[in-house]
Amino acid sequence: MQPKVSVLISFYNLAPYVDQTLESVLAQKTNFPVEVLCADDGSDDGTIEKLRVWEKNYPDSVRVFVMDRTPGAKYEANARIQRMNAIRGRLFYEAKGEYVCYLDGDDFYTDVNKLQKQADILDADTDHRYVACGHNGCYYWESTGKTQPIEKPLRACSLTAKEYWSFLYIHTNALMFRNVGLQGIDPYTSGVQIIDNMLTFQFLPYGGIYYLPDCMFNYRQMEGSTYHRRSVYQNYILNALMLYQQSAIQKGLFGSGLVRFVFEYEQLFAARKDARLTREAQTYMENIRTYHAGRLRRIVNYNNESLPARLWCEIENPVWFFVTRVCRHYIWKPKVRALLEEARQKQAQNA
Question: CA-CA to 280 of 20 to 30 Å: which in 7, 168, 228, 265?
């Protein structure tokens, strides 16, 4: 039977979490078929063997793909991201469902009706105003069992691509996308890094996003994750670079991007004279050159730049921060400002 939803799960050395993750997906209560596609990055801790057991026990639902990996090989920085891209791309091209959901192999669903709720919203959207339906999630600390909502307590709302990109973050694990690949559209032809925000941005040319406030998955916090293997400063760089990467996918959202990434640029600009951080930035200089991110380069490579370049850095960034404030005024329409004010008031009441 043709699946309606494809859940795409990526793994690497996550044997302790395989069962909980797959149980949370296969326990979903739906009135439609669901397929579960698992891609492993060549684990050597027993993850693959566990996945094969699930594939054997659920042959009609679970399929497993394994990437080649040189025994003992370690991939860091861009090489690690490229392998993540390859996994997610392979899963997307294999998906047969009308809708697709990504999930990291150490995270798990906490609401058995999650897939049904999201599919119902997208089914009702016969005009295809939304390319995705997303929801809130919770940070989850296994050692204590503590959870904390990832995002502000916004109410359910519909957002255009510009509105979403200007102010809201929905974790990729919490999004259900229309499978635009079934219409012959390849959202990955841009060649940008398919991580986090940019994965979502690949789909924004095809519609907005409907948001649900429900926390329906747990985002496990682990020190060995790809995010934590980078420093905070390096994560700022990769986030700031998205302002340039987005133009390779869709024009017309530059102003929204300015608003979205102004925090990262302000943090990087404030730390521009720190020689230690300049050395940290060298890991991603190739990425910066690839996307001709001159302003970003002058900030993070400040101590290695020529005197004219440093002087220009001191002039251009205050100007761009002003432009961002202008964009914030015009892009954050009354609806968005009202949503943010409502969230602020809720937080104040709960404090």
Answer: 168
Place of tokens 């991201």: 81
Choosing from 226, 242, 257, the residue where a domain stops is 226
| Kind and range of the H or E run holding 134 | strand 130-141
List the one residue out of 22, 20, 23 whose CA is nearest residue 8. 22
Residue type, 115: L
Confirm if 54 and 22 have CB atoms less than 8 A apart.
Answer: yes
> Based on the domain organization, do 197 and 133 belong to the same domain?
yes
Least trusted range by pLDDT, from 26-40, 74-88, 121-135, 256-270: 74-88
| 162 shares its domain with 122 | yes
Helix or strand run (H / E) with residue 344? helix 334-350
Residue 35 identity (one-letter amino acid): E
The torsion angle over the Cα atoms of residues 2, 6, 191 and 84, rounded to 10 degrees, is -140
Do strands 5-11 and 34-40 pair parallel, antiparallel, or not at all (unpaired)?
A: parallel
Residues 222 and 285 in one domain: no
- Can you tell me whether residue 106 is helix, strand or coil? coil
Q: Would you say 293 and 316 are in contact if contact means Cβ atoms under 8 Å apart?
A: no
Q: Rounded to 5 degrees, what are φ and ψ at 249?
A: -110, -50
Q: How many CB atoms lie within 10 A of CB 273?
A: 11
Sign of CA dihedral 179, 182, 187, 193: positive
Residue 241 main-chain phi, psi, to 5 deg: -65, -25
pLDDT tens for each residue of 80-127: 777 777 788 889 999 999 999 999 999 999 999 999 999 999 999 999
Are residue 220 and residue 345 in the same domain, yes or no? no
33 and 83 inside one domain: yes
Residue with tokens 């008031």: 345
Which of the 8 DSSP states describes residue 46?
Answer: S
d(CA 93, CA 4): 15
